[in-house]
Amino acid sequence: MDRLGLRLRIALFFLGLGLGALALLALGLWAGYRHGDGGPQGYVTAGLAAGFSIAGLVAGVWYLFDENLARPIQGLATDMRLRAHAGTGGIDTAQARYLGDLGPAASALSRQLGEGAISAVEDLAGEAQHLRGERERLTALLSEIPLAVILLDDAGRLLLYDGQAARLLEARRPPGLGQPLSHWFDMAEVERVLAGLEPGQSAPIRLASADGHAVQEGEIRRMAPGAGCLLTLDAGSAHVAERPLAYDFSLPARVAGPMRDADLADLTFVIFDTETTGLLPARDAVVQIGAVRAIGSRLIPAETFDSFVDPGCPIPEASTRIHGITDAMVAGAPPMAEAGRRFLDFAEGAVLVAHNAPFDMAFLGQHARATGARLDHPVLDTVLLGAELLGSDKPLTLEALAERLDVPFPETLRHSALGDAQATAQVFLKMCRLFAARGQTTLGELIAVQKAHGRLLPDLNPD
């Protein structure tokens, strides 16, 4: 049977269906003739019996067709799409054993694609290594200079900041590429000084903090037209930065109009996870929040959020066995009122992404209701997105998705908020590439996908 061609196998399906229907109909007519005494009642009974039998036959043939042709073809298409657009795994030819030469042909194409990709990676590896070395040297150099370096675009948004600047800004709120400097400083002085500068000119500047409680001294330089300005601020003392240089010179323009109509490449995503004392938001509390930021399809390594949270109650031993967080580890940590505020500052203007989002969002919702914080971000859920891409009948745990998409997820990172957030981010960005290959490139299209799988988990976005 495995050696039969695909076209012959399909022909046999329908030949069997036709012959079976004729046989059942003939059997019904014969039974009506034998037991109906020549009257119409026997033939009616026989016709009904034959009709139901044919319906059962059709259902059986459909089941065989679905199991042996439709599902394997769908699985093969998924494997090929994953291979082509996410660079994952290979082709599972076992599922295509009844598809004739289609499975081996797809596997051969996958191998050829993989060889081409390896060749391209080898060609780029040397240049990438050179660029990494240059970036590391620049980061090390800036770390030794007791100045905070910030590059702004013409709209006053952060295009680049070094570790010194991150330390300076973080004292008030977590920094983020694309966020306006007005979150930290009064922009009136920046605009006043820039108005008197020509491109290439510099001037001293005294920046008042946004709350007016502090003043930061430094220098501002107007760059070439369209290139923004460069701020160098006194960082107090030489300090080796703990974080790499953060930059994005291709920062998208601010999204105009409804966010749902925006292209995914123009959006900022904050991918997050929480660890808690239990499973009930009304009774339990958060003990850790971890998050990473991505702009379009690029993770920003320097921009992470990782904070223990004082739950205000003992952590049950059963919960500690899962995430490893003890009462001693959260002693002295900020309460949820403060940690939640800083997290929402970190996530301002972003699309929130989580795995099993209703769980994490329920705890954030508790915080928002208790403090009056604004929580109206669009939400994407890798469970619902995975159901669309890989099938709702497949395992959709974070571990299963990471394995299916070839995302490294070592045991040491599992069930820590930041570790889970990092794995979810890698899974999500690969999913975005797969959706783009299907022509689904806007936030609204992904939300529509989630709503189509609402029987698995509720989609948290308003209609």
TrEMBL record:
Its EC number is 2.7.7.7. One of its GO terms (cellular component) is cytosol. Keywords: Membrane, Nucleotidyltransferase, Transferase, Transmembrane, Transmembrane helix. It catalyses: DNA(n) + a 2'-deoxyribonucleoside 5'-triphosphate = DNA(n+1) + diphosphate. One of its GO terms (biological process) is DNA replication proofreading. It comes from the Bacteria. Residues 268-437 form the Exonuclease domain. It holds the Pfam family RNase_T. One of its GO terms (molecular function) is DNA binding. InterPro entries: DnaQ (IPR006054), PAS (IPR000014), PAS-like_dom_sf (IPR035965), Ribonucl_H (IPR013520), RNaseH-like_sf (IPR012337), RNaseH_sf (IPR036397). Residues 136-202 form the PAS domain. The chain crosses the membrane at residues 12-31, 43-65. It is an enzyme of class 2 (transferase). DNA polymerase III contains a core (composed of alpha, epsilon and theta chains) that associates with a tau subunit. This core dimerizes to form the POLIII' complex. PolIII' associates with the gamma complex (composed of gamma, delta, delta', psi and chi chains) and with the beta chain to form the complete DNA polymerase III complex. DNA polymerase III is a complex, multichain enzyme responsible for most of the replicative synthesis in bacteria. The epsilon subunit contain the editing function and is a proofreading 3'-5' exonuclease. This is DNA-directed DNA polymerase. It comes from Pseudooceanicola marinus.
